[in-house]
Write a structure and sequence with these properties.
Elements (H helix, E strand, L loop, with lengths): L2 H17 L2 E6 L4 H6 L2 E3 L1 H10 L4 E5 L2 H10 L4 E3 L15 H10 L5 E4 L4 H4 L4 E3 L4 H7 L4 E5 L2 H8 L5 E4 L5 H4 L3 H10 L4 E4 L5 H4 L4 E2 L2 H10 L4 E5 L5 H7 L4 E4 L14 H10 L8 H16 L1
Parallel strand pairs: 1-2, 1-3, 3-4, 5-6, 5-7, 7-8, 9-10, 9-11, 11-12
Helix pairs in contact: 1-14, 3-4, 4-15
The structure holds 1,3-dihydroxyacetonephosphate and iron/sulfur cluster.
Length: about 300
Amino acid sequence: MNPNIKQDIKNKIKQLTKEKNAIILAHNYEPPEIQDIADLNGDSLELSIKASQTDADIIVFCGVKFMAETASILSPDKTILLPRPDAGCPMADMITPEGLKAWMAKNPSMPIVTYVNSTAAVKALTTICCTSANVVKVVNSLDAKEILMTPDRNLADYAATKTNKIIHKWDGYCPFHDALTPEQVLKQKKAYPDALFMAHPECRAEVLALADVITSTSGMIRTAHESESTSFIVGTEVGLLYPLQKANPDKTFYPASIAMECVDMKKITPQDVLNSLENLSGEVKVPEDIRIPALQSVQRMIEL
Ligand code: 13P
Ligand code: SF4
Protein backbone atom coordinates (compact mmCIF):
# COMPACT_ATOMS: atom_id res chain seq x y z
CA MET A 1 0.00 0.00 0.00
CA ASN A 2 1.08 3.57 -0.76
CA PRO A 3 2.83 4.87 2.42
CA ASN A 4 0.83 8.14 2.29
CA ILE A 5 -2.48 6.24 2.36
CA LYS A 6 -1.15 4.13 5.26
CA GLN A 7 -0.21 7.25 7.21
CA ASP A 8 -3.57 8.82 6.37
CA ILE A 9 -5.39 5.79 7.82
CA LYS A 10 -3.23 5.93 10.96
CA ASN A 11 -3.93 9.66 11.41
CA LYS A 12 -7.68 9.16 11.01
CA ILE A 13 -7.63 6.33 13.56
CA LYS A 14 -5.76 8.53 16.04
CA GLN A 15 -8.18 11.40 15.55
CA LEU A 16 -11.26 9.17 15.89
CA THR A 17 -10.00 7.46 19.06
CA LYS A 18 -9.63 10.93 20.61
CA GLU A 19 -13.01 12.21 19.41
CA LYS A 20 -14.89 9.10 20.50
CA ASN A 21 -12.92 8.37 23.70
CA ALA A 22 -11.88 4.99 22.31
CA ILE A 23 -8.91 2.77 23.06
CA ILE A 24 -7.27 0.16 20.82
CA LEU A 25 -6.10 -3.11 22.35
CA ALA A 26 -4.04 -5.62 20.36
CA HIS A 27 -3.00 -9.17 21.15
CA ASN A 28 0.68 -10.08 20.81
CA TYR A 29 -0.08 -12.21 17.70
CA GLU A 30 -1.68 -9.41 15.66
CA PRO A 31 0.13 -8.15 12.52
CA PRO A 32 2.89 -5.54 13.17
CA GLU A 33 0.86 -2.65 11.66
CA ILE A 34 -1.96 -3.41 14.13
CA GLN A 35 0.36 -3.79 17.13
CA ASP A 36 1.88 -0.42 16.19
CA ILE A 37 -1.43 1.48 16.17
CA ALA A 38 -2.63 -0.07 19.45
CA ASP A 39 -2.67 1.86 22.73
CA LEU A 40 -2.10 -1.34 24.67
CA ASN A 41 -0.62 -4.71 23.70
CA GLY A 42 -0.48 -7.89 25.69
CA ASP A 43 -1.40 -11.51 26.29
CA SER A 44 -4.96 -12.69 26.93
CA LEU A 45 -4.82 -12.11 30.69
CA GLU A 46 -3.25 -8.66 30.46
CA LEU A 47 -5.71 -7.50 27.82
CA SER A 48 -8.77 -8.68 29.74
CA ILE A 49 -7.57 -6.87 32.87
CA LYS A 50 -6.63 -3.71 30.94
CA ALA A 51 -10.02 -3.74 29.19
CA SER A 52 -11.77 -3.77 32.56
CA GLN A 53 -9.68 -0.89 33.94
CA THR A 54 -9.83 1.67 31.14
CA ASP A 55 -12.03 4.79 31.29
CA ALA A 56 -12.59 4.69 27.53
CA ASP A 57 -16.19 4.44 26.26
CA ILE A 58 -15.20 2.29 23.28
CA ILE A 59 -12.74 -0.60 23.19
CA VAL A 60 -11.54 -1.67 19.75
CA PHE A 61 -10.32 -5.19 20.35
CA CYS A 62 -7.75 -6.37 17.81
CA GLY A 63 -7.69 -10.06 18.52
CA VAL A 64 -10.27 -12.80 18.13
CA LYS A 65 -13.91 -13.05 19.18
CA PHE A 66 -13.46 -14.71 22.58
CA MET A 67 -11.22 -11.80 23.63
CA ALA A 68 -13.82 -9.21 22.64
CA GLU A 69 -16.46 -11.26 24.47
CA THR A 70 -14.30 -11.29 27.60
CA ALA A 71 -14.06 -7.50 27.38
CA SER A 72 -17.86 -7.30 27.04
CA ILE A 73 -18.30 -9.61 30.05
CA LEU A 74 -16.08 -7.35 32.17
CA SER A 75 -17.28 -4.00 30.79
CA PRO A 76 -20.99 -4.22 29.92
CA ASP A 77 -21.38 -0.45 29.74
CA LYS A 78 -18.65 -0.01 27.17
CA THR A 79 -18.97 -0.52 23.43
CA ILE A 80 -16.69 -3.39 22.40
CA LEU A 81 -15.75 -3.51 18.74
CA LEU A 82 -14.12 -6.43 16.93
CA PRO A 83 -13.05 -4.93 13.58
CA ARG A 84 -13.40 -8.30 11.83
CA PRO A 85 -16.38 -10.17 13.31
CA ASP A 86 -15.22 -13.35 11.52
CA ALA A 87 -11.95 -13.46 13.52
CA GLY A 88 -12.64 -16.52 15.65
CA CYS A 89 -10.65 -19.22 17.40
CA PRO A 90 -10.94 -22.83 16.18
CA MET A 91 -10.04 -24.11 19.66
CA ALA A 92 -12.84 -22.07 21.29
CA ASP A 93 -15.28 -23.68 18.85
CA MET A 94 -14.20 -27.21 19.86
CA ILE A 95 -16.51 -27.10 22.87
CA THR A 96 -20.21 -26.17 22.93
CA PRO A 97 -22.42 -25.39 25.93
CA GLU A 98 -24.55 -28.43 25.02
CA GLY A 99 -21.51 -30.72 25.01
CA LEU A 100 -20.30 -29.34 28.32
CA LYS A 101 -23.78 -29.63 29.89
CA ALA A 102 -23.92 -33.31 28.88
CA TRP A 103 -20.54 -33.90 30.57
CA MET A 104 -21.66 -31.99 33.68
CA ALA A 105 -24.77 -34.14 33.95
CA LYS A 106 -22.51 -37.19 34.32
CA ASN A 107 -20.05 -35.45 36.70
CA PRO A 108 -22.24 -33.04 38.68
CA SER A 109 -19.84 -32.08 41.47
CA MET A 110 -16.56 -31.68 39.58
CA PRO A 111 -15.26 -28.10 39.23
CA ILE A 112 -14.58 -26.90 35.71
CA VAL A 113 -11.56 -24.80 34.74
CA THR A 114 -11.98 -23.20 31.33
CA TYR A 115 -9.24 -21.55 29.31
CA VAL A 116 -10.20 -17.99 28.30
CA ASN A 117 -9.96 -19.23 24.70
CA SER A 118 -13.63 -20.24 24.90
CA THR A 119 -17.04 -18.77 24.13
CA ALA A 120 -18.95 -16.70 26.69
CA ALA A 121 -21.63 -19.41 26.78
CA VAL A 122 -19.05 -22.00 27.88
CA LYS A 123 -17.54 -19.60 30.43
CA ALA A 124 -21.05 -19.19 31.86
CA LEU A 125 -21.05 -22.90 32.81
CA THR A 126 -17.56 -22.77 34.27
CA THR A 127 -16.31 -22.64 37.88
CA ILE A 128 -13.24 -20.54 37.10
CA CYS A 129 -11.38 -19.39 34.00
CA CYS A 130 -7.64 -19.53 33.41
CA THR A 131 -5.12 -18.28 30.87
CA SER A 132 -1.76 -19.65 29.82
CA ALA A 133 -0.20 -17.22 32.31
CA ASN A 134 -2.07 -18.37 35.43
CA VAL A 135 -3.25 -21.95 34.76
CA VAL A 136 -1.17 -23.59 37.52
CA LYS A 137 -2.25 -21.00 40.12
CA VAL A 138 -5.91 -21.45 39.13
CA VAL A 139 -5.82 -25.25 39.27
CA ASN A 140 -4.05 -25.26 42.63
CA SER A 141 -6.55 -22.75 44.05
CA LEU A 142 -9.41 -25.23 43.79
CA ASP A 143 -10.42 -27.23 46.81
CA ALA A 144 -11.09 -30.43 44.85
CA LYS A 145 -9.12 -33.56 44.06
CA GLU A 146 -10.48 -33.93 40.54
CA ILE A 147 -11.22 -31.22 38.00
CA LEU A 148 -12.24 -30.93 34.36
CA MET A 149 -10.20 -28.64 32.13
CA THR A 150 -11.65 -27.31 28.89
CA PRO A 151 -11.14 -26.88 25.99
CA ASP A 152 -7.34 -27.30 25.58
CA ARG A 153 -6.07 -30.84 26.14
CA ASN A 154 -2.43 -29.68 25.94
CA LEU A 155 -2.89 -26.97 28.56
CA ALA A 156 -4.58 -29.62 30.74
CA ASP A 157 -1.62 -32.00 30.28
CA TYR A 158 0.77 -29.19 31.19
CA ALA A 159 -1.23 -28.29 34.32
CA ALA A 160 -1.28 -31.97 35.31
CA THR A 161 2.54 -31.94 35.49
CA LYS A 162 2.41 -29.06 37.99
CA THR A 163 -0.19 -30.34 40.44
CA ASN A 164 -1.18 -33.55 42.19
CA LYS A 165 -4.83 -33.15 41.27
CA ILE A 166 -6.50 -35.55 38.86
CA ILE A 167 -7.20 -33.57 35.71
CA HIS A 168 -9.81 -34.70 33.22
CA LYS A 169 -9.46 -32.97 29.88
CA TRP A 170 -11.66 -31.86 27.02
CA ASP A 171 -10.26 -32.95 23.66
CA GLY A 172 -9.75 -29.49 22.14
CA TYR A 173 -6.53 -27.96 20.88
CA CYS A 174 -5.07 -25.01 19.00
CA PRO A 175 -4.43 -26.31 15.47
CA PHE A 176 -1.25 -24.24 15.15
CA HIS A 177 0.38 -25.04 18.49
CA ASP A 178 -0.72 -28.68 18.45
CA ALA A 179 0.91 -29.21 15.04
CA LEU A 180 4.41 -28.32 16.26
CA THR A 181 6.46 -31.53 16.41
CA PRO A 182 9.53 -32.47 18.45
CA GLU A 183 11.35 -33.09 15.14
CA GLN A 184 10.81 -29.49 14.04
CA VAL A 185 12.07 -28.22 17.40
CA LEU A 186 15.11 -30.52 17.35
CA LYS A 187 15.96 -29.30 13.86
CA GLN A 188 15.98 -25.68 15.07
CA LYS A 189 17.93 -26.62 18.21
CA LYS A 190 20.56 -28.25 16.02
CA ALA A 191 20.73 -25.16 13.79
CA TYR A 192 20.91 -22.77 16.78
CA PRO A 193 22.52 -24.75 19.62
CA ASP A 194 22.95 -21.73 21.92
CA ALA A 195 19.35 -20.57 21.64
CA LEU A 196 16.93 -20.91 24.55
CA PHE A 197 13.73 -22.75 23.55
CA MET A 198 10.56 -21.04 24.84
CA ALA A 199 7.30 -22.93 24.36
CA HIS A 200 3.66 -21.99 24.84
CA PRO A 201 1.63 -24.43 26.99
CA GLU A 202 -0.78 -24.94 24.06
CA CYS A 203 1.98 -27.14 22.54
CA ARG A 204 1.98 -30.90 22.97
CA ALA A 205 3.66 -32.53 26.01
CA GLU A 206 6.44 -34.01 23.85
CA VAL A 207 7.31 -30.49 22.63
CA LEU A 208 7.10 -29.00 26.13
CA ALA A 209 9.53 -31.72 27.28
CA LEU A 210 12.17 -30.03 25.09
CA ALA A 211 11.49 -26.51 26.39
CA ASP A 212 13.80 -24.41 28.56
CA VAL A 213 10.89 -22.13 29.48
CA ILE A 214 7.12 -22.73 29.25
CA THR A 215 5.09 -19.53 29.41
CA SER A 216 2.44 -17.24 27.89
CA THR A 217 3.17 -14.82 25.05
CA SER A 218 3.92 -11.89 27.36
CA GLY A 219 5.88 -14.27 29.60
CA MET A 220 8.11 -14.94 26.58
CA ILE A 221 8.69 -11.21 26.05
CA ARG A 222 9.68 -10.84 29.73
CA THR A 223 11.88 -13.97 29.63
CA ALA A 224 13.74 -12.74 26.55
CA HIS A 225 14.32 -9.39 28.23
CA GLU A 226 15.57 -10.82 31.54
CA SER A 227 17.55 -13.79 30.20
CA GLU A 228 21.30 -13.73 29.67
CA SER A 229 20.75 -15.68 26.45
CA THR A 230 21.02 -13.67 23.27
CA SER A 231 19.11 -16.04 20.98
CA PHE A 232 15.78 -17.83 21.30
CA ILE A 233 13.69 -20.41 19.49
CA VAL A 234 10.08 -19.32 19.78
CA GLY A 235 7.49 -22.09 20.17
CA THR A 236 4.33 -20.13 19.59
CA GLU A 237 2.39 -18.30 16.87
CA VAL A 238 4.87 -16.47 14.62
CA GLY A 239 3.26 -13.06 15.23
CA LEU A 240 5.06 -12.97 18.58
CA LEU A 241 8.41 -12.55 16.82
CA TYR A 242 7.57 -8.90 16.11
CA PRO A 243 7.01 -7.70 19.72
CA LEU A 244 9.89 -9.93 20.89
CA GLN A 245 12.28 -8.28 18.45
CA LYS A 246 10.91 -4.80 19.14
CA ALA A 247 11.39 -5.18 22.90
CA ASN A 248 14.80 -6.83 22.50
CA PRO A 249 16.56 -5.30 19.49
CA ASP A 250 19.96 -6.77 20.40
CA LYS A 251 18.71 -10.37 20.60
CA THR A 252 17.85 -12.89 17.89
CA PHE A 253 14.62 -14.87 17.58
CA TYR A 254 13.93 -17.93 15.44
CA PRO A 255 10.47 -19.45 14.93
CA ALA A 256 10.16 -23.09 16.04
CA SER A 257 8.16 -23.53 12.83
CA ILE A 258 7.04 -20.92 10.29
CA ALA A 259 3.83 -22.96 9.86
CA MET A 260 2.61 -21.68 13.25
CA GLU A 261 0.55 -18.86 11.80
CA CYS A 262 -2.98 -18.34 13.11
CA VAL A 263 -5.20 -17.31 10.21
CA ASP A 264 -7.75 -15.57 12.43
CA MET A 265 -5.14 -13.46 14.23
CA LYS A 266 -4.05 -12.05 10.87
CA LYS A 267 -7.45 -10.90 9.61
CA ILE A 268 -7.67 -7.35 11.01
CA THR A 269 -6.15 -4.56 8.90
CA PRO A 270 -5.75 -0.85 9.80
CA GLN A 271 -8.57 -0.11 7.31
CA ASP A 272 -10.84 -2.51 9.30
CA VAL A 273 -9.97 -0.65 12.50
CA LEU A 274 -10.82 2.67 10.84
CA ASN A 275 -14.14 1.35 9.44
CA SER A 276 -15.07 -0.09 12.80
CA LEU A 277 -14.35 3.20 14.60
CA GLU A 278 -16.14 5.29 11.98
CA ASN A 279 -19.32 3.21 11.87
CA LEU A 280 -19.17 1.53 15.30
CA SER A 281 -19.37 -1.72 13.36
CA GLY A 282 -18.48 -5.18 14.64
CA GLU A 283 -19.96 -4.66 18.11
CA VAL A 284 -19.68 -7.68 20.40
CA LYS A 285 -22.18 -7.71 23.25
CA VAL A 286 -22.71 -10.71 25.48
CA PRO A 287 -26.39 -11.00 26.57
CA GLU A 288 -27.00 -10.52 30.32
CA ASP A 289 -28.23 -14.09 30.96
CA ILE A 290 -24.83 -15.37 29.78
CA ARG A 291 -22.73 -12.42 30.92
CA ILE A 292 -23.63 -12.63 34.63
CA PRO A 293 -22.58 -16.29 35.16
CA ALA A 294 -19.60 -15.87 32.79
CA LEU A 295 -18.47 -12.83 34.78
CA GLN A 296 -18.28 -14.94 37.94
CA SER A 297 -15.82 -17.37 36.35
CA VAL A 298 -13.68 -14.60 34.85
CA GLN A 299 -13.73 -12.52 38.03
CA ARG A 300 -12.74 -15.49 40.21
CA MET A 301 -9.66 -15.82 38.02
CA ILE A 302 -8.77 -12.12 38.08
CA GLU A 303 -9.16 -11.94 41.84
CA LEU A 304 -6.71 -14.82 42.48
P1 13P B 1 -1.62 -15.85 25.50
O1 13P B 1 -1.27 -14.56 24.87
O2 13P B 1 -2.54 -15.63 26.65
O3 13P B 1 -0.43 -16.64 25.86
O4 13P B 1 -2.56 -16.66 24.47
C1 13P B 1 -2.21 -17.35 23.39
C2 13P B 1 -3.33 -17.53 22.45
O5 13P B 1 -3.44 -18.53 21.82
C3 13P B 1 -4.31 -16.48 22.27
O6 13P B 1 -5.19 -16.88 21.33
FE1 SF4 C 1 -7.10 -19.86 18.77
FE2 SF4 C 1 -4.67 -20.92 18.38
FE3 SF4 C 1 -5.40 -18.79 17.00
FE4 SF4 C 1 -4.91 -18.57 19.64
S1 SF4 C 1 -3.42 -19.10 18.06
S2 SF4 C 1 -6.63 -17.71 18.51
S3 SF4 C 1 -5.66 -20.58 20.35
S4 SF4 C 1 -6.35 -20.82 16.92
